[in-house]
């Protein structure tokens, strides 16, 4: 099982200089490359300091000049916000800039907050339908001249300019949760990204089974892959692990607040949650984070990841976004590199 890093620039306070936060994110990415991690993934989000990522291709182009070997992935492009012709060209150009290291992850999007601002009236179902129209169109544009008459996009004959370096095209990954999404990915020759978020082993097993069942039934001969994206923290000791569980519980409370889209937002920052509000939210808890996420000492993390490998996961991406300080993220990643990674080489 390959080990990767999933990362965004995140801003918790208006007092944090944004260029400093970007440089810290890049420093962690450079660590991942130097250590021999498989890939770096970063996504697309708009108007949210919680996850600052207006165009992942910009970040990946920068990383192409800062790194040597690591694969560079979009985790993920939001399908309804991208025209097929534009996405095909931007992805192909990024593939050229990165020297053929691009991995293209695509999703329907998760935040109603973003839907409201970029495409008012859009809902999750329609966003999913747009993704299903977008992916085949992009592949056709990479092949050559292609005219499209779909439900959401229409254009006369066109082609991707430029063409991607990787042939026939960069690997495509679909963010999937329900069986239909797994079936769509497999039918279209795409790999699958899954995240159980804060949920535990039962969900991790279910997601793996969805993929393997769809692949076996629909594309048994295709070398398709599944990647597990999960928050984690490699702790120095149990006290450090407990602190990480508390920090990630706070992160998920903010994630939930953004997802509900009911709380005031000013200058990209959500109205702060009080300790009392976090304690009263029984949907998340530090105890559940400690149990369900990849939090623990190096030996605990190795044991957990070996279970994922046995379930048939081809790649594990350590989701490092957490609201933690740069120093804590760096310490965790250092332990991951030095004490966990050697068990998977």
UniProtKB/TrEMBL annotation:
For this UniProt entry, the molecular function terms from Gene Ontology, in alphabetical order, are: alkanal monooxygenase (FMN-linked) activity
Q: Name one GO cellular component term.
A: cytosol
Origin organism is: Serratia ficaria
Q: Which domain of life is it from?
A: Bacteria
Task: Establish whether keyword Protease is in the entry.
Answer: no
User: Which stretches make up the Luciferase-like domain?
Assistant: 13-314
Tell me the InterPro entries matching this sequence. Bact_Lucif_Oxidored, Luciferase-like_dom, Luciferase-like_sf
Gene responsible for this protein: luxA_4
Look up keyword Plastid and say if it applies: no
Protein name, per record: Alkanal monooxygenase alpha chain
**Sorted alphabetically, which keywords does the UniProt record give?**
Monooxygenase, Oxidoreductase
Give the Enzyme Commission number.
1.14.14.3
Q: What class of enzyme is it?
A: oxidoreductase
Return any one Pfam family short name.
Bac_luciferase
Q: Which PANTHER family match?
A: LUCIFERASE-LIKE MONOOXYGENASE (PTHR30137:SF6)
């Amino acid at each position: 099982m390959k080990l990767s890093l999933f990362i965004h620039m995140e801003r918790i306070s208006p007092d944090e200089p944004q260029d400093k936060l970007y440089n810290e994110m890049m420093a962690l990415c450079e660590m991942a490359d130097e250590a021999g991690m498989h890939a770096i993934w970063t996504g697309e989000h708009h108007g949210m300091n919680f996850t600052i990522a207006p165009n992942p291709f910009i970040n990946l182009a920068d990383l192409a000049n800062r790194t040597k070997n690591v694969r560079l992935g979009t985790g993920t492009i939001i399908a309804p916000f991208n025209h097929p012709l534009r996405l095909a060209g931007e992805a192909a150009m990024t593939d050229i800039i990165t020297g053929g290291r691009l991995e293209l992850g695509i999703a329907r999007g998760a935040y109603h907050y973003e839907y409201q601002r970029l495409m008012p009236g859009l809902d999750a179902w329609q966003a999913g339908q747009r993704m299903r129209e977008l992916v085949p169109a992009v592949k056709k544009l990479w092949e050559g001249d292609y005219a499209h008459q779909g439900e959401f996009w229409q254009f006369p004959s066109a082609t991707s300019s430029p063409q991607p370096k990787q042939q026939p095209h960069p690997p495509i990954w679909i963010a999937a949760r329900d069986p239909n999404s797994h079936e769509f990915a497999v039918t279209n020759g795409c790999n699958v990204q899954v995240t159980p978020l804060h949920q535990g082993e039962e969900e991790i097993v279910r997601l793996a089974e969805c993929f393997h069942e769809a692949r076996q039934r629909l594309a048994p001969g295709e070398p398709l892959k599944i990647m597990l994206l999960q928050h984690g923290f490699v702790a120095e000791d149990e006290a450090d692990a407990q602190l990480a569980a508390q920090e990630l519980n706070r992160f998920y409370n903010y994630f939930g607040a953004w997802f509900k889209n009911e709380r005031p937002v000013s200058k990209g920052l959500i109205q702060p949650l009080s300790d009392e509000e976090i304690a009263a939210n029984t949907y998340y808890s530090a105890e559940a984070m400690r149990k369900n996420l990849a939090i623990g000492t190096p030996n605990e993390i190795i044991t957990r990841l070996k279970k994922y490998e046995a379930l048939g996961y081809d790649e594990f991406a350590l989701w490092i976004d957490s609201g933690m300080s740069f120093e804590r993220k760096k310490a965790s990643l250092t332990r991951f590199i030095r004490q966990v990674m050697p068990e998977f080489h």
